[in-house]
Amino acid sequence: MKPSKLACLAVLIGPAAVAGPLDEPHLNFTPRTPAEATRIAKVLAPPPGFDAPERFEDKPAGAATVRVTPDANAFSLPSASLDFEDELTFKVGNGLFRKIWVSSPSSTLASDGLGPLYNARSCQRCHIKDGRGHPPESHDDSAVSMFLRVSVPGGPDDMIPEIEGYIPSAPEPTYGTQLQDFSLPGHAAEYRLQVDYKEITVPLSGGDTATLRKPTYTAADLGYGPLHPMAMLSPRVAPQMIGLGLLEAVPAAEILAGADPGDANGDGISGRANIVWSVEFDMPMLGRFGHKAGNPTILEQTAAAFVGDIGISSPLFPAGAGECTDLQADCQAAPHGGGDARGFEVDAEGLELTAFYSRNLGVPARRNIDDPQVLRGKQVFHNTGCAACHRPKFVTHRLPDRPEHSFQLIWPYTDMLLHDMGAGLADGRPEARATGREWRTAPLWGIGLTEQVSGHTTFLHDGRARSLLEAILWHGGEAQPQRDAVTRMPPPDRNALIAYLESL
User: Fold this and answer.
1) How would you class 154 by CB atoms within 10 Å of its CB: exposed for 0-12, middle for 13-18, buried for 19 or more?
2) Phi and psi of 234, rounded to 5°?
3) Is residue 496 predicted with pLDDT exceeding 90?
């Protein structure tokens, strides 16, 4: 009989163990043989030329790659590698991902527990069509797919000694770690997100120019008094959801092998791993998910989103009042949806089903891979050094109990490491080992379908970039030489680079 995908969380949140970032307790994998490692190294080598596509380049998710649909559902298909039973599990998880939660007490016991403070009433409200969120378009527009994280500098009690280089921080005393802009009747929302922009003109070669918009973020209409004077705010737009299970299946050793914190090879790129404390496994683990790689597994990322975004408790984050703090007494005292047959507002089974859905959203096939302009753009991408951070290829672990993610050649275009992106993109807020200037390299697969899926072309962690070119021009820090090269290159090469990115 096929093993059940519904994990027993009692095992997952057991006692702490002596562990390091190479430990992968979320995966049951078969170690690679030396012969396999040699073969994989050849497969992952840079392309020998740019006259034709590489083998399997049209299938960015390997056997999990899905066809490209002509509509907004392009990111919502189940991975092609799922069998019939798992497709049913995927559909049940999709129902939970789309579920509209209601307040307690309610006759719909399976769906109550919303808030009292929240950013959205369902996962789908932020990850619209499983794609990328966007900032509010005006002061009157809803910020439903964007919010502000908040924290204050930590002290000795906030250190995690098991993690070298950990930067301590603490929740903002009144507002916690995330500002919620919606609330149930009788409760004040925490704030209203206000975004103002200043335009910056950037000269480009060939007489071209580009206009960037520099944002200023304001936590307006604070509902519970002023923020702490040392509060650190970080804007976050909901990222796209495709291919997450494959990223989770990449060997930690492969990711860490790409880290070069001291820039020993002198290429100017010094990616660092974020090592975070896993609530799921009670140990340090490699961070993989989130804009600063602050979560190690999809299950933990899912549980954190439930409690932070919707106010829904789970076995990993059991607070019935969600993210409410002790200084928000009415919120703490409000009815919640725990304590019935579920135990929590979303129980272990519901949490795993939602995580299963998130792991198995298919990555659409590449388009136009043999187009001469796209091939030229690929050459520009590599010659300019973009591939140093946006690493094209990985091969996932052999996973006997997750065949849908097992031993696949994937093309996500990320190294999953932290990079200093310069002062222009800095939020000033650390997260585990990530500094206020560091961000995880965003995966690029599917990026050319953003407008089709999400109805916009806003990019970066806060959606400030209105095009792929603007996103490139915001790169600084380690990526400053690549950014400057793009401004100086002949316009046909710049256009080819954009065409290549749009084909991903």
Assistant:
1) middle
2) -135, 115
3) yes
pLDDT tens profile 98-147: 999 999 888 777 888 999 999 999 999 999 999 999 998 878 777 889 99
Contact indicator for 165, 252 with CB cutoff of 8 Å: no
Task: Please report, for residues 255, 285, 304, 328, 379, the alpha-carbon distance to residue 301 in angstroms, rounded to integers and kept in the order given.
Answer: 19, 13, 5, 25, 35
- pLDDT at position 20: 58
pLDDT over 70, % of the chain = 96
- Determine contact, residues 440/291, Cβ cutoff 8 Å: yes
How many alpha carbons fall within 13 Å on the CB side of residue 408? 29
* CA 264 from centre of chain: 28
Q: How far apart are CA 144 and CA 193, in angstroms?
A: 10
Task: Supply the DSSP symbol for 223.
Answer: S
- Closest to 488 measured CA to CA, from 470, 500, 473: 473
Residue with tokens 């089903």: 353
Residue with tokens 């829904």: 312
Which two tokens mark 95? 């129902």
The number of C-alpha atoms within 13 Å of 372 and in the hemisphere containing its C-beta is 1
Overall residue count recorded for the chain in this entry: 504
- Expressed in percent and rounded to 5, the helix, strand and coil fractions of the chain are 30, 15, 55
Q: What is the DSSP letter of 449?
A: G
Q: What is the pLDDT of residue 472?
A: 98
Contacts of 241 (CB under 8 A, 6+ apart): 75, 127, 130, 131, 358, 361
Q: Answer whether 281's CB lies under 8 Å from 25's CB.
A: yes
Q: Which of 16-25, 57-66, 232-241, 275-284 has the lowest mean pLDDT?
A: 16-25
pLDDT value for 111:
85
Q: Which helix (H) or strand (E) holds 438?
A: strand 438-440
First-to-last C-alpha distance (Å) of the chain: 38
* Of residues 116, 198, 113, 190, the one with CA closest to residue 149: 190
Beta bridge partners of 185: none
Residue 78, both tokens: 């189940």
- The tokens describing 61, both together, are 């998710």
- C-alpha 369, offset from chain centre: 26
CA distance 374 to 390: 17
- Residue listed under structure tokens 């497969």: 43
CB 182 within 8 A of CB 115: yes
CB atoms within 10 A of CB 498: 19
Burial class, 122, CB count within 10 angstroms (exposed 0-12 / middle 13-18 / buried 19+): middle
